[in-house]
Amino acid sequence: MSELVRRDPRKAWIARNRLHPQHLEVLAELGGGAVASEWMGPNGVMRRNPHAVGFIGPNGIRRIDRSGAQQAAQAPGRSVEAKDARRHVAIDAPAFMVAVVPDMAGGRLSSHDRDLLGLARQLADADPAQPGAVVAIVFGEHKETAFGEAGIDRLIHLEGERFSGYLPELSVATLQGVDREMAPRYWLLPDSSVGGELGRRLAARLGERPAAQVWQVEADAESATGWRCTARGAAGRNDITRSLPRIVLALAECADPISETRHAAEPINLSHGLPDVLGRIEDMGEVAVDPASVSLAEAEFILSAGNGVKDWDSYHHAAEVLGATKGASRVAVDDGFMPRDRQVGATGTWVSARVYVAVGISGAIQHLQGIQSCDKVVAVNLDEGCDMVKRADLAVIGDASAVLAALVKRVEQYRAEQQENRDAA
Amino acid sequence: MPHDVSNTSAKATTPGGLNVAVLVSIGRHPLTARTRRADQDARAVEMALTLQSASVSLLHAGQQDSENEEAIRGYLGMGIDSVNLIEQKPQADVIPALAKALRASAAQLVLTGTRAETGEASGITPYLLAEALGWPIITGLAAVEKIEQGTAVVLQALPRGKRRRLRIRLPAIATVDSSAPPARQSAFGPAKRGELAIHLEPSAIDEALGAWHIQPARKRPKRLKIVKASSARDRFKAAAAKADGGGGQTLTDVTPEQGAEAIFKLLKEEGVLR
After folding, report:
1. Could you tell me how far CA A43 lies from the centroid of its own chain?
2. So where are chain B's domains?
3. How many CB atoms lie within 10 A of CB A52?
4. Residue B95's closest chain A neighbor by CA?
5. Out of B160, B214, B266, whose CB is closest to A233?
6. Which residues touch A19 (CB under 8 Å, ≥6 apart)?
7. Chain B environment of A79 (Cβ under 8 Å)
8. What does each C-alpha distance from B97 to A157, B45, B88 come to in angstroms?
9. Where are the beta strands (DSSP E) in A96-178?
10. What is the tens place of the pLDDT at every residue in A244-273?
């Protein structure tokens, strides 16, 4: 409400009417009071304070009306901080449940997860008289803080020692337990490498025929479930339109993510304990792979060098110590410091790294296009105004080689500490 | 069983070796739409052929006609003597037939592609088979490291070029995706000479398939950038503003050590330091 500008038309009228007996008082009042805009100086010269004249127009820009017919006064003190205008939604007695198992890549909701939650909300909120609740099941540790803003009403968080690592059998048994307890009307999973596998396991376990690679869901009165979905089939060459089954494996951008409402994300626990499963698949941990052998397009962590790097040996050393895949800008490749297959950008490789460290790269538009899908971008650069610094989530202004050397030292120290801890344990 | 007949193929096998069955399907070339050996299935065959002292048998369930036979012969050309063909009607659900054949065979490891290139291609067949047989299943097999005492130690391919080591109890099903090594070429002569061992099985017709509407894929609509602004000024700003990071942190006038510490903290939070 405070966004609205309240005007007193009578005072505005007095302010326009210079012959009104209260003209000066009202002008002073509307003009913000204290600051005088014009006064006689000690030598008899008129002094003016240009900052005190004029008024703030309706769109926040100062206007000076030199005709003297000043219309609006200074806007009343607006609230500076943007208020969260999103509607709060709480569903206390849901008519049904829609279960979502997000991927949580890197411990956060990915954009794919958010799209899927948007789809879940579509299914849950279709009938305003009988709203359903979206329940999300999250395995393992996470770093996400905004579950409610993504459209989650209930959250089942399964954490602890038992849920670390790759445990498809335990996860499926747990989801089966959730299914028995809540009987969700729909199960939605992302058709990615993690969610797709879990969803297919769940479908096989529950004996449901899933719809895989779904990219569109529409209301359809004729179908048995009231919804029909369109899924890709035959390696993306066909569209299969069918009524929406109970288990849906959806592609990215299947629906718009939630942006206008906030939900409760109320944590709930399973009433039955966790199932005991006989593990026939044992996770023996991830295997260290040589980061140099990973192709640039699918590398997770890239240390990229540009024109600002002068000491190439220390750059290569830093990439080895950090365990990062090496990338380069066009200039570094053209100058012969890096091979062509390491070039990042529109003319090289489009990368999808989770962390992209750009050292001495100013950020040509072609390069920024190539790193569009990177999650976190770190820039080390001398120029504070360059485009890479604007794009970066963390920018360090300084000499590339000095910062790299310090970073290598810090990481080596961290590795040594870890080694000590391991030795002590 | 007929499956054991073909086990004498492919390689000089040792009697105590591993029995590997590979489920193969008919592929379709993405551009020319001609039938061919399916890419992922061919990779599965390649992986089976490179296993030490393994006897490989190929299994296909489906319709039998000249076009499909040509595609199946593509697998024979990789150096395999015969393929077991379970004949099924075009609209059949092949799970019961495949499960029966696998149960009857002495296969300890079943390899297959992740997803077919024709039909529904939902990629759920291996999971349904695993559920029917009660075997464990793993996805994205990249390499088999060793097999001992009824367990196999394998490498699983993860996104971003990572690998995970798993120990699974045999018999098991493993799917192969495009991160596995590419398949060898199919040679014409062996493909012509190879034998197709045809078995007749009753087909279970897939009823649900009839109710579906299948058409060539439409192009997916591009998502528009939606600007939700309350005032004209905000809309103008959104339209005219240069894209910026939004909330990016810039450290100026810091020593290299402070800068490095900030970067180190971010790298550690993201968990990319190992």
Report:
1. 62
2. 2-211
3. 14
4. A204
5. B214
6. none
7. none
8. 40, 21, 9
9. 97-100, 133-139, 154-158
10. 999 999 998 888 888 888 888 889 888 877
Interface predicted TM-score (ipTM) of this complex, two decimals: 0.82
- In angstroms, the separation between the Cα of residue A37 and the nearest Cα of chain B is 29
Q: Across the strands, what pairs with A47?
A: A39
Report pLDDT digits (tens) over B189-223.
Answer: 999 998 888 888 888 888 888 888 889 888 888 88
Domains observed in chain A: 9-63 (no CATH), 95-267 (3.40.50.620), 291-421 (3.40.50.1220)
Number of CB pairs < 8 Å for A and B?
A: 248
Would you tell me the crossing angle of helices A400-424 and A312-322 to the nearest 10 degrees? 30
d(CA B102, CA B84): 11
Amino acid at the residue B204: A
CA distances to A99, A132, A175, A198, B106 from A270, rounded to whole Å, are 14, 19, 11, 19, 41
Q: What is the pairing mode between strands A281-287 and A227-233?
A: unpaired
The answer, yes or no, to whether the previous bond of A291 is cis (omega within 30 of 0) is no
Q: How far is CA A263 from CA A116, A187, A259, A313, B31, in A?
A: 15, 19, 11, 52, 46
Nearest CA of chain A to the CA of B239: how many Å?
16
Distance from the Cα of A259 to chain B's closest Cα (Å) equals: 9
Query: Rounded to 5 degrees, what are φ and ψ at A423?
Result: -65, -40
Angle at A178 between CA A174 and CA A180, to 5 degrees: 115
CB A159 within 8 A of CB A141: yes
How deeply is A1 buried, as exposed, middle or buried, from its count of CB atoms within 10 A (0-12, 13-18, 19+)? exposed
> Are A355 and B266 a contacting pair, CB within 8 Å?
yes
Give pLDDT tens digits for B216-254: 888 888 887 776 766 777 777 777 765 554 567 888 888
CATH code: domain B2-211 is 3.40.50.620
How does strand B82-87 pair with strand B195-200? parallel
